[in-house]
């Protein structure tokens, strides 16, 4: 269970100094129109895998009265014993980026099943998002569009049977990352750095929709331990502080209860105020289906 004695004012555990915002910032008024929930939790289990997912509204969006702009989805194809994890981080400077993030997490799996290739799947969902944005822009006009613009980055993982353990295929546009955690508590960034397709270029951040998606590709193997697909709300403090790496390793060497996992993803730490999304995938040691 999460150690509530170390919790910040929002009932989440603190790692280091939680900062004043975690203890003093109120939830705020309900929005004027329906929007995404502040927090989202999911858990799954199957042959060889345990999965926990949590997306938590960050303190900056709480302060500004804006919605959570992260989103995630987890889907499974029984015929190929393949699990997809998609995590999106809406571009915070654009007001309706939560819609772009939700659109990509909803549509990208179908494109992957059709192509069985991440580069082709992202190209297709990028084209669909382009069409959606073009329709919205035409309906609203230039003045209203500024208050309704949207874009998102994406990281996606396909986990399928391999010769030794599970094969993991990764693609990301940037910002969001994938980390491996060994059973001994060691963290390794397994995010992609190689150019995986001649029509897709490795480079700086290119949020979707864009005329030329820039994607990073990588492959790894999940034999034991766990993988964590995350937005930079967790990646940045994980990468930057040994204290965060040690604490999260202690919490996540085995799958937590889902409500504990949600609180842990939302941990309080001074100056880290962004939305937080993590999908954890644990190898259970069972035979693959």
From TrEMBL:
Residues 1-32 are annotated as: Disordered. InterPro entries: PPM-type-like_dom_sf, PPM-type_phosphatase-like_dom. It comes from the Bacteria. Residues 57-253 form the PPM-type phosphatase domain. Gene3D superfamilies: PPM-type phosphatase domain. Pfam families: PP2C_2 (PF13672). This is PPM-type phosphatase domain-containing protein. It comes from Amycolatopsis pithecellobii.
């Amino acid at each position: 269970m999460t150690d509530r004695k170390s919790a910040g004012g929002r009932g989440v555990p603190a790692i280091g100094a939680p900062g004043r915002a975690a203890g003093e910032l109120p939830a705020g008024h309900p929005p004027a129109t329906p929007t995404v929930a502040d927090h989202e939790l999911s858990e799954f289990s199957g042959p060889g895998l345990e999965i926990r997912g949590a997306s938590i509204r960050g303190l900056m969006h709480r302060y500004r009265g804006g919605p959570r702009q992260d989103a995630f989805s987890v889907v499974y194809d029984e015929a190929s014993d393949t699990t997809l994890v998609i995590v999106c981080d809406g571009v915070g400077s654009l007001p309706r980026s939560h819609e772009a993030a939700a659109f990509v997490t909803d549509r990208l799996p179908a494109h992957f099943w059709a192509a069985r290739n991440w580069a082709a799947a992202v190209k297709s969902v990028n084209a669909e998002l382009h069409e959606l944005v073009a329709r919205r822009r035409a309906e609203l006009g230039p003045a209203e569009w500024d208050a309704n613009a949207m874009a998102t980055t994406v990281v996606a993982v396909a986990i399928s049977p391999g010769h030794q353990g599970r094969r993991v295929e990764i693609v990301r546009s940037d910002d969001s990352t994938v980390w491996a955690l060994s059973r001994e508590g060691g963290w390794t960034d397994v995010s992609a750095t190689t150019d995986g397709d001649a029509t897709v270029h490795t480079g700086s951040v290119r949020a979707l929709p864009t005329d030329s998606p820039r994607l990073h590709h990588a492959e790894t193997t999940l034999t034991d331990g766990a993988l964590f697909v995350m937005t930079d709300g967790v990646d940045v403090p994980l990468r930057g502080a040994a204290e965060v790496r040690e604490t999260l390793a202690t919490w996540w060497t085995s799958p937590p209860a889902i409500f504990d996992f949600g609180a842990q993803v939302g941990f309080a730490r001074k100056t880290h105020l962004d939305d937080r999304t993590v999908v954890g995938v644990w190898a259970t040691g069972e035979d693959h289906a």
